[in-house]
Write a structure and sequence with these properties.
The protein is of the alpha+beta class. The chain has two domains: about 130 residues, Sandwich (Jelly Rolls), CATH 2.60.120.10; about 45 residues. The termini are far apart. The mean pLDDT is about 90. GO terms for molecular function: kinase activity. It comes from Flaviramulus basaltis.
Length: about 190
């Protein structure tokens, strides 16, 4: 993992002074996480925010009958957190799970909140990250409403060019809101075109 890439990622939101980076690093832990590990469990009251430095993770929702619906995939560098549960100090409705081995920075949400009150650079960074997360959520919502399954798949391939090698087909199908059989048909049609 390249620490400079992490710094570039943070600076893509806001110019972060070195002193602020040092403060953030002092409250962060870099962890190695195995594939299939739930870093946020269903109904767990979360206290951490994560920055994915390597690997692939997902966020999903489980229905009462146990069916999983993928809400999002995460690649390096991205932030992972059940925001509503953190802000409201309530149980998470979502599960966040690693799909591959990952390196993640783990940060206590309450320590970040305290830093936001004391350090304008951290507060600005936090605001910019939230704006980015919201815009990504908004884009995903528009895609779900306005694009058909093939167009959603093509959009996902634009966002994650090697998605078919990184993420199992059944997870991709769930993310697109279709079955694995439908996804196979879409892939075949694209290959035939």
């Amino acid at each position: 993992m390249d620490a400079n890439l992490g710094l570039e990622f943070l600076n893509s939101f806001s110019n972060v002074p070195a002193e602020t980076i040092n403060q953030l690093m002092s409250i962060s832990k870099l962890k190695e996480v195995k594939p299939g590990k739930q870093i946020v469990k269903l109904n767990e009251v979360p206290t951490k925010i994560y920055m994915l430095a390597s690997g692939v993770a997902r966020c999903y929702l489980t229905t009462e009958n146990g069916k999983e619906f993928n809400k999002n995939f995460f690649l390096p560098y991205s932030f992972i957190a059940p925001l509503t549960a953190l802000v409201k100090n309530k149980p998470s409705l979502f599960v966040f799970e690693t799909l591959t081995g990952c390196q993640i920075y783990e940060v206590d949400y309450y320590k970040i909140s305290d830093l936001c009150k004391k350090n304008m650079s951290v507060n600005t960074l936090y605001s910019k990250v939230l704006e980015s997360v919201y815009m990504t959520y908004e884009k995903r919502l528009v895609e779900l409403i306005s694009l058909d399954a093939k167009e959603r798949y093509l959009e996902l391939r634009k966002q994650i060019p090697n998605v078919d090698e990184l993420i199992p087909q059944y997870h991709i199908a769930s993310y697109l809101g279709i079955t694995s059989v439908q996804l196979s048909r879409i892939r075949k049609k694209i290959d035939d075109d």
